[in-house]
């Protein structure tokens, strides 16, 4: 009988930042430097003044300490905090698919590939009215994807590349008012005030 794999981290162990995480970095005395950034696949983030900084593999408080040191030569007694706003490494597929789930993120994964990993569309799905919800610049944005057009070759551009923590919602029926639907969804389920341009 094979042994179960070890846990990804021991219970109670501090969280280590990883690629795809969405970080909120705040400077208490210089709020104009406040920024929200994704951790890149190489594990680094890019910040004003100091440039690239290694983030993956550090606890949030360790990164805050490293940033305080990096900025000490540029700012007077800097105070920095780091909050993980969204955890990367997965995309989320829900609605009219066979297995609503969170497939692992991989560079280059597309909307149709993620839906395939979730078992594919149900017969009740509306593939040409799939909603992509994405966190950008600290706000959630909604995009309508015509994925049936991508499947049939009519418009391959609809099958967009995904980013860590993207959400795909496959509706049962065509969403009449996309702006209203996305705003209600975000207010009901997600923590950040939305901005909702629909494309």
CATH architecture of the largest domain: Roll
CATH superfamily of the largest domain: Outer membrane lipoprotein wza domain like
Distance between the termini: 52 Å
Low-confidence stretches are 1-9, 192-199
**How many DSSP H or I helices?**
4
**What's the count of strands?**
9
Structural class category: alpha+beta
- In spatial order, strands of the major sheet run 6-9-7-8
Helicity range of the residues? 10-25%
Amount of beta strand: 15-25%
Q: What's the CATH C level of the largest domain?
A: Alpha Beta
Mean residue pLDDT: 83
The largest pleated sheet is described as: 4 strands, mixed
Nearest-angstrom radius of gyration? 19 Å
Question: How many domains make up the coordinates?
Answer: 2
Shape: elongated
Return the string of H and E elements: EEEEHEEHEEHEH
Task: Summarize, please.
The protein has helices at 60-72, 111-117, 147-151, 178-189; strands at 22-27, 35-38, 44-47, 51-54, 80-86, 92-95, 130-136, 139-145, 167-170. By secondary structure, it is of the alpha+beta class.
